[in-house]
Amino acid sequence: KCNPKGFTNEGCRGIDKKHWNSQCRTSQSYVRALTMDSRKKIG
Fold this sequence. Notes:
By secondary structure, this protein is mainly α. It has one helix spanning 17-42. Its main location: secreted.
């Protein structure tokens, strides 16, 4: 199953295991950056 966000609650799943970690870390970092930015704007 594919996840639009590129990661799931259980972990990150990519097409290839070699890119699995890199895609996971990039996605999480990107989401965290947006979350922090949103909190700063709202708060």
